[in-house]
Design brief:
The chain is mainly alpha-helical. The protein has helices at residues 42-56, 61-75, 85-107, 110-128, 133-145, and strands at residues 3-4, 10-11, 21-23, 29-31. Helix 3 (85-107) packs parallel to helix 5 and helix 4 (110-128) runs antiparallel to helix 5.
């Protein structure tokens, strides 16, 4: 038999759990079992920063190329290929979601996140070193897969 005490704690043997409370001078009641203040270390902030960059950097090419894609393609001498910059990313990320989605549930998210960040990094390098619009399209496809 399970009994719930007013604090929400239950005991299976039918006994009530005794809790001690402290009545302060101003009439406030507090539990004597104080909760520790959470500590956020620099390592935690570093992990939050890396995860934020891993999520955010993969989406930066879309608004960037939406704004300057035409100028980039014109500068590279292949203005008609600008229409493939963003669709290359969209198609590859769609395929990646289908492949990685269920597999991350089965195999764990850590190494898929690390691998995706590395692939995204390679895609950014390809875009940055592209000599023509075809290189930019290939880099966008690689970035989308990451």
């Amino acid at each position: 038999m399970s009994i719930e005490t007013p604090s929400g704690k239950a005991m299976d043997d039918g006994r009530l759990q005794k809790e001690e409370y402290n009545v302060e001078a101003n009439g406030a009641v507090s539990n004597l079992e104080e909760e520790e203040e959470p500590v956020v270390t620099p390592k935690t902030w570093f992990v939050v920063f890396i995860l934020s960059m891993g999520y955010g950097l993969s989406f930066w090419p879309i608004p960037t190329f939406a704004a300057i894609g035409g100028q980039v393609a014109t500068e590279l001498g292949e203005a008609s290929k600008v229409i493939w910059f963003i669709p290359a990313w969209t198609l590859s990320i769609t395929v990646c979601f289908m492949l990685a989605g269920a597999n991350t549930d089965l195999l764990g998210r850590r190494w898929f996140l690390v691998g995706g960040n590395l692939i995204c990094f390679v895609g950014h390098l390809v875009i940055g070193t592209a000599k023509g619009a075809t290189g930019v399209i290939a880099g966008m496809a690689i970035t989308g897969f990451g």
